[in-house]
Amino acid sequence: MKRLAWLVVLLVGCGGGSVMQADDAAPVDGGGSSMGSGSGSGGTLTALQTCVSETNKDRALNSKPALTESATLEAYAGSGAEYDFSHNPHDHFDLTRSEGISFAENECPQQGNWNLSFGNGDITATVIACVAAFYAEGPDNGDGQQHGHYVNMMSDNTALGCGIYVETSTQKLTIVQDYGR
Hints:
With 181 residues, this protein is an alpha+beta fold. Helices cover 36% and strands 17% of the residues. Strands 1, 2, 3, 4, 5 and 6 form a six-stranded mixed beta sheet that branches. A hairpin with a 4-residue loop joins β5 (159-167) and β6. The longest helix has 16 residues, at 71-86.
């Protein structure tokens, strides 16, 4: 429980890498990569699919309908993860005015010290920790405040795309969720 609280603290309020495709295997090796576009099909869940399925698992706990995985939002989130890695959290979303496709965004940024150690070197396990931290901000966390990450997860949006940028030389990463309709 202490570790989960620590993860929530690392969330930030609303070179050497590239963008990984939805069907790339995890963990990543090499200089760096970013996930955010591609078909998302395959026998095993990729980190991007896990991002959507973990979010839907949490939504189901609150009687919310499942979000559909959107390739358009994945591409947008992947670009955002890559851009924000070298800039500030949510800069891509703010600069592009969400391109009219994303209505809310969550982010686990490298500026908040997110890295592969949260998942013992595994991208998918790190994504699970990130989504869990968003959910842990929920309405019953005892501080009496609304939290944007949790609110975005429980919103009336109907689609979700996730993007991940990893710089493997440093093990730092940025994970972005973009919600749309």
